[in-house]
């Protein structure tokens, strides 16, 4: 496999239930395995947020390329986990809330579908192991974006 197809990272125990992940690109993130009183997201929460971040990047980029005047994009994520160990996700849902000036629902639908089916590596990888669904809402904005 070519070197540019590889990603590298480390995760080190930082005491208690905390771990620090460091990406090969030099960024750090804190994980906490204590879901009740933790100081950071759990690894499963991080996985859920990774799907949302990956898809959001795609959706915003596609809408911008389509000259849609997006002022805000938020994805609300929900993940259902099985009751047995390991407590894997069996369903994840991503609901996009796209705010903008004269934003076309057809463009948002297209952007969400392209992300889900073609571009979002995280979501597409997760689809091989579970059900991943997507929906969206367009929220009109009275303000036209700058630029």
TrEMBL record:
Which NCBIfam families does the entry mention?
Answer: PRK10738.1
- The signal peptide annotation in the UniProt record is none
Q: What is this protein called?
A: OsmC family protein
Q: Which PANTHER family match?
A: PROTEIN YHFA
- Superkingdom per UniProt: Bacteria
* InterPro entries linked: KH_dom-like_a/b (IPR015946), OsmC/Ohr_fam (IPR003718), OsmC/Ohrsf (IPR036102)
């Amino acid at each position: 496999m070519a070197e540019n197809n590889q990603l590298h990272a480390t995760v080190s125990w930082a005491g208690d239930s905390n771990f620090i992940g460091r990406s090969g690109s030099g960024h750090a993130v804190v994980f906490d395995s204590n879901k009740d009183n933790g100081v950071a997201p759990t690894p499963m929460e991080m996985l859920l947020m990774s799907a949302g971040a990956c898809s959001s990047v795609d959706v915003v980029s596609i809408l911008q390329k389509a000259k849609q005047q997006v002022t805000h994009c938020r994805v609300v994520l929900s993940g259902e986990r099985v009751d047995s160990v390991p407590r894997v996700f069996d369903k994840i849902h991503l609901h996009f809330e796209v705010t903008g000036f004269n934003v076309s629902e057809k463009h948002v639908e297209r952007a969400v579908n392209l992300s889900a089916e073609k571009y979002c590596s995280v979501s597409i990888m997760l689809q091989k192991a579970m059900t991943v669904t997507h929906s969206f809402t367009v929220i009109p904005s009275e303000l036209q974006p700058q630029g």
